Amino acid sequence: MENDATLTIGENAYALNIIEGTESEKAVDISSLRKKSKFITFDDGYGNTGSCESSVTFIDGDQGILRYRGFDIADLATSSNFLETSYLVIYGELPSASELDLFKERVSKFSKLPEEVVNAIHAQPKNSHPMGVLAAGLQSLGGAYPAYCTNDRKSDLECFDETAALIISTVRTIAATRHRFLLSEEVPEADPAASYCQNFLSMMFGKESESEEIPKSVINALDLIFLLHADHEQNCSTSTCRMIASGGANPFASLAGGVSALWGPLHGGANMAVIKMLNQIHDAGDDGSRFIESAKQGKTRLMGFGHRVYKNYDPRAKILKSACDDALEALGVSSPILEIARRLEEEALKDSYFVERKLYPNVDFYSGIILQALGFPTDMFTVLFAIGRTPGWLAHWKEIAETGKKIHRPRQIYQGSPLRPYSPLEKR
Predict the structure, then answer these.
(1) 119 domain-assigned
(2) What's the pTM?
């Protein structure tokens, strides 16, 4: 393949470099185009624009491939866990036994929030959305650890190991603290001997006086949800996090921006939409059959099916389906909502209308079902997404801090009024 491409505009030709990724992805490098030609490119929504080079995650949506740092998601889901995968995503390599132990120790020691952060969470209006509280909690956390939050890249990188463990640990504590506060309850302290997800479930739903054992399959299902959401390339929230970081902002501010971007219903709210759809079907006295026919006629939308990136089966959904079945069995959960979900899944997987259009169940379909069965309030589903995505955001902050040279500054095509004279108020 030639080393450059040529763009012809009128009578002028401009030589542009071609970049090839390690998985043979190809891009025309237009970074010099404006300087050479005074032209820019236009790509509404950046669907065809590579904003950066990154070594964190590879996705091939046509083939249904998702890899973290070169490791296939199916292998990680089978053999790893959330904290080990978090280390991999952040640092680029699987940890040794001693490295993993140290990482776990760091995460464990930061499980309790400083009192001023707890007070900041409690000070949020009761009607505040949990994602808003999480963003505010992260900002407050940075204030509580000023040495980790300097806005000086060199200083912030020097303490990054501590910062990463602090944030990974406390995002779950912020979530649990808000949940318990609304119930007028205290958050049980984390058990150093328990796993990350076991502690989180205890923080959310446990009682200090109770030592009820949480089924292993339930813990594993939540751990798997977090692992499968650890990173997903340059989506809206990750791109937001990187853009904020490009300005030199600290990890706390950058991740708070990522949380705010994820809050939008077009990004992080898909699993909530699944539960809303299932409830609507149930309230209408439907077992799912009428809804499916309505979806085929374009009158309704089947939430949790299909994916913007994956034109094949979402590889995460295949993995989560089995965990979903195991968790529901362990919980002994049976409800009309879950029965409707199973019927939708069964019918859509065999109906030619959905199969031909590759509208398979995606990760949001199964995660929504699991989270509801575990007892999480629906408005917290996106928070759970954010907890899982935290290592990815940290990895991208680190990548920007270590390699970034320019502040991100997209261009635009101005379509407003041309120059016009100012008219004094008395003459308007």
Answers:
(1) no
(2) 0.93
d(CA 273, CA 402): 38
The H or E element that residue 58 is part of is: strand 57-60
Question: Over pLDDT 70: what percentage of the chain?
Answer: 98
DSSP state letter for 213: P
Is 11 inside a domain boundary? yes
Question: Residue 54's pLDDT band (boundaries 50, 70, 90)?
Answer: very high
| Range of the structural domain that residue 12 is part of | 4-50
Q: What is the CATH number of the domain that holds 24?
A: 2.20.28
- Give the number of domains in the chain: 1
Q: What is the b/e burial string over 111-146, where b = at least 16 CB atoms within 10 angstroms of the residue's CB?
A: bebeeebbebbeebeeeeebbbbbbbbbbbbbebbe
Confidence band for 1, pLDDT divided at 50, 70 and 90: very low
Catalytic residue positions, numbered? 307, 364
Domain-embedded: residue 37: yes
Residue 381 maps to a domain:
no
Q: Are 390 and 167 in contact (CB under 8 A)?
A: yes
Whether the per-residue pLDDT at 181 is higher than 50: the answer is yes
